[in-house]
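Cross-check.
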Amino acid sequence: MEQKIGSENISRVLYPSDSVMAGKELRLVQEYFLVACAVRDIARNYLANHNDFELFPEKVAIQMNDTHPALAVAELMRVLVDENNLDWDDAWEITQKTVAYTNHTLLPEALEKWSVALMERVLPRHMQIIYGINFNFLRTLNAYSWVDGEKVRKMSVIEEGHDKNVRMAHLAIVASHAVNGVSALHSELIRTSLVPEFAQLWPAKFSNKTNGVAPRRWLLKTNPQLSRLLCESIGDAWITNLQELQKLEPLANDAAFQAQFAKVKVQNKLKLARIIRDETGVSTDPRAMFDVQIKRIHEYKRQLLNVLRVIHDYLRIVEDGDAPKTPRAVVFAGKAAPGYWAAKQIIKLIHNVAAVVNKDRKANQLLRIAFLPDYRVSLAESIIPAADLSEQISTAGMEASGTGNMKFMMNGAVTVATWDGANIEIAQEAGEENVYIFGLRAEQIELMQRNGLYHAREYYDRDPRIKRVLDCFLNDRFSSSEPGLFRWIFDELINRGDRFFHVADLSQYIEINEKIDADFQDIAKWRRMSILNTARSHKFSSDRTIEEYSADIWNLKHFPSGIQEPPTPAVTSPPTSPIGLTVE
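Predicted model, tokenized:
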């Protein structure tokens, strides 16, 4: 019975905490379980039609989406060498031609490493294979005069030290024929900051493939009223060719179309308001700006920065009598990793601030806060169409791309953002006049970090707005029944370096939100911005992304001329099927 329960945990426990050894081992076993099943299925299907592995790279492409499936490298080698008796060199050539790697993070702590001791205990044969891969790789470095001992140490798949680790990102890079990032800035930072030695060694291996999202899921299905309006206004060709949305641009200044577009938004806000009331008990006015930040809770994604600005707005109302121009409903949703204490504390802070603000009669007519629980795709499908303002405020240089930002854009939300990830490309596509950009740039942050130039206390001492907000964590304004609960935030920001530059960006964030408040009052201007965001979102279709992967990495061919692609059904009424198309 114990063995049965233990085996079922492999697929029963989602995201086990890696803060304890048992959780780490379970996660490693899970990753191997999924990789092993996938590789075995791939090999079985291939061998059903072929007698050897000569054509394997032409028939199979394995795209490692971040480092979680990086064990596919060792597993494919094991299948080829141990189970099918290929020579090591032949197996390695096949593996390199087959696998490719997409990096999704620049944070060093998020790049997976597995203890060599754990690997040797759980996956001993795979560890032998990884040693062999690394031995051969390091031997090839002898041919390069610029590779010294320090670079060898940095590039090795095995991280030396008291506790040896397998660097899964390095394993993926060494084994792949192509490595890509998921936004222009991110891909550049991979080459220049994350793994510059590998980029110097194999410059042609690195490229960019900006993320995309499925428009038939995140616009057609998620926002049926807007989809109907689009079909009535520009036809239905946009469903399979999102570039057709550009036909909306001439309508952006049309008062009648603006009114129809705005009516759809209000209907979506009414729907979300009901969900917020039912889930949290918080009432929201659809006439208010729906200011939305939904994403994984993480310090670099800076939900905390959003809360600091909310506290500033609250203090302006109750202490200064300075009412903001635009009422706001600030909506949060997201989950924290099981072992991520700080992220859970930020969720607690949001709830505590909401409890104070929503009960304050002076403030709650102008400011409401709601944290929707159990964030999931079905909930996102109700939130995204209702958003007026999309919060994309990560520390510059730390968000690989983002995809929520693209979903909001397609549905007509206006973005407030740092110059980070795909926000840059969103600004370039929409026009910087149709988004709100603030904060330090990635190169400024890198310079300040490298030279020790950032001192958050200087901002605190210089700007009374910042001081008043942060002092709330000292005087327990939002934790009167739990004294000292949020003192750690003050210490983290002022005394321990503020790694994610919250304090440095707070004043600009406050000021850009004052401009947003004023612009929201200009109804025609805001509606025009909203329409243009939808009209110019075509770059962020996953159709474009997959075409780029197909052409540049997987080497897939188009249909031969003798084979006709299936026709695309027309859509003339609100979508009802899972993808919005009539299915016979």
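The longest helix spans residues 21-47. The first strand starts at residue 62 and ends at 65. Passed to J.P. for a second look.
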